Predict the structure.
Amino acid sequence: MEDRNYIMREITPLSERDFFYIADRRKSEFTYPIHCHTEYELNFVENAAGVRRVVGDSAEVIGNFDLVLITGKDLEHVWEQHECTSSDIREITIQFSPDIFSKNFEIKNQFASIGHMLERARCGLCFPQQAIMKVYNLLDKLASEEQGFYAVMDFMSILYELSLYDDARVLASSSFAKIENFSDSRRIQKVQKYIGEHYREDIRLNTLADMVGMTPVSFSRFFRLRTGKTLSDYIIDIRLGFATRLLVDSSRTIAEICYDCGFNNLSNFNRMFKRKKNCSPKEFRESYRKKKVVI
């Protein structure tokens, strides 16, 4: 049973004739509800330490600077006041249509890094402090000038500079965002596809190693090298991603969700959820619903 009337699908003010839309706000609190939209969004927040940023199933308390790119059309997100006491918050939001980047555009050598960044940002992408400082003046300049030709060039410069930071961090899990996110290794792709199809079942290391013709020890090492995660952590993250999506999208009980997502023990599920998400499944569900909006 679907229960998504508490998430607002935002109708953005971006015109079809505009390359992008920008809003530069000075505020003392965040009051906008959790929402999603088809437009891509780059959101910069300054002087808002203590604010809680939610992107999909990722929830983090931010520092004085925060810069996030979101290109997933169904990826819910919100910045909540939480413990922030600042009365001088600055938020610059840039929204732009996915249509401005055709596939032919993204595969050109000069724009390949931007294309790769936009793809990663389907799960939300958080940029490191160094990247924020690199584009800070460009963001400030862009917010104060008219949307002419040079403003578009400044905007493209911002995207390009950000695309050079490989240490930008993916926020939401791919299973929550309903996105297939595969390694560039064919052997790992085969395993990832299998896990995505069989996450509800008991998945054995020997089975996966046999699939790619490797010993279990060699495969475990190879998997971690290629994905940056141990096999067990990867499987847990996939299962938790599906679980958090069900917590948001359905009214099923936590126990039902636990067993349907491959966990065979409710207390273990709650413990693992708390360790990975810093809250219980019940708290996660309630955090999405406390700002209920009827569409």
Summary: The chain is about 45% helix and 15% strand. Confidence is low (pLDDT under 50) at residues 1-5. The first helix runs from residue 103 to 106.
